[in-house]
Amino acid sequence: MRDVADVANVSVSAVSLVVRNKAGVADETRQRVWDAISKLGYSVSDAQEEVRSPGVGLLIERGSMPAMLDIFYGEVVRGFQSEAQRLGYQVHLHMFDRHAETSSALRTKLASEANGIVVANDGDITPEMIMQLEELNVPLVLAESYVAGRRLPCVLGDNFTAGYSVMEHLLAAGHRSIAILQGPRKYSSLNDRLKGCLAAAASAGLLIPPHFMPSPHSENPRKGYVQMKELLEADQRPTAVVAISDKTAFGAMEAIKEAGLRIPDDIAIVSIDDVSESAYTNPPLTSFHIPRSEIGVLAMQKLHRLISGETEVPVKSLVYGELIVRESSAQKLY
Q: Spelled out in words, what is the top-level CATH class assigned to the domain 2-50?
């Protein structure tokens, strides 16, 4: 109903919300839409029959899909999708495969089907690609990613604080021999978590040696298991480990038990994400809770305001989390 949107001087998505009697539109805007429908000679039933839900694109790298569906990003997506449906949008999920698709083809596809785009996570979706998406002049919001030096609206978990908090927790328990199972550097969220860990260690005068920070094995689905095995095979064994994500921690815990060691008596372990499985590991995993569903909801709300033509100052929004202490780090050293 582009003609109604033009007469009412609103977005097509606003017309859709009004006709479908959805929330998210101011009373004054709602009245303008109905006035335009009347002026153009449409009946209510005509308008409801003709209007189609506006589309929003959700873009994520294909490599993230197993983790997205099983652990972390499933909740981000569910939050985004439920809020999109509440606001009257149809979600077009697009998984970018860098081996099978060019960034040019991606831009063409998204421009044809979406009134706005949310990019969830980064990784293979590089800063250069995001800047190219900006050139489409379509509302764009980032979730759990950002581009340094670009004032793009984004919604993030408080990843630096998460890293700082889990490391500080181990330091407060008396640990000084602490390893970090880091993640791939192409993810800004994981980089911020690592920076937080190192900042907390530096504040305590602790330097993490390189051999206590094994590199991730990007192509191996059991990254945490492989990294922990590498640590356990070294001459010196840490008394505690920070895993950069719960998925990494699950693999690390398996390797520790396989080596005949006890958690936390021989090695304490903490992590970041606090997915539902974390409370049911043996022992239950200490983890910093990232409000994943809320990130998706807030990203969609921000995108809706942009699509609706509202003035939106581009800000980097951080969603607060909290440390959930469980038995995996319970032992104190004296």
A: mainly alpha
pTM of the model: 0.81
Handedness of CA 179, 181, 186, 191 (dihedral sign): negative
Burial group, residue 34, by CB count within 10 angstroms (0-12, 13-18, 19+):
middle
Cβ–Cβ < 8 Å for 245, 68: no
- Is 55-157+295-319 assigned to CATH 3.50.50.60? no
Determine the length of the chain. Answer: 334
Strand partners, 160: none
- Architecture in CATH for domain 159-289: 3-Layer(aba) Sandwich (3.40)
* First-to-last C-alpha distance (Å) of the chain: 70
> On the CB side of 222, how many CA atoms lie within 13 Å of its CA?
10
Distance separating alpha carbons of residues 17 and 3, to the nearest angstrom: 15
How many other C-beta atoms can be found within 10 angstroms of the C-beta atom of residue 330? Answer: 15
The 10s digit of each residue's pLDDT in 91-140 is: 888 888 777 777 777 777 777 778 899 998 888 888 999 998 888 888 99
H helix runs in the chain, sequence order: 2-8, 12-19, 27-39, 44-50, 65-70, 73-86, 103-113, 127-134, 159-172, 188-203, 223-232, 246-258, 292-307
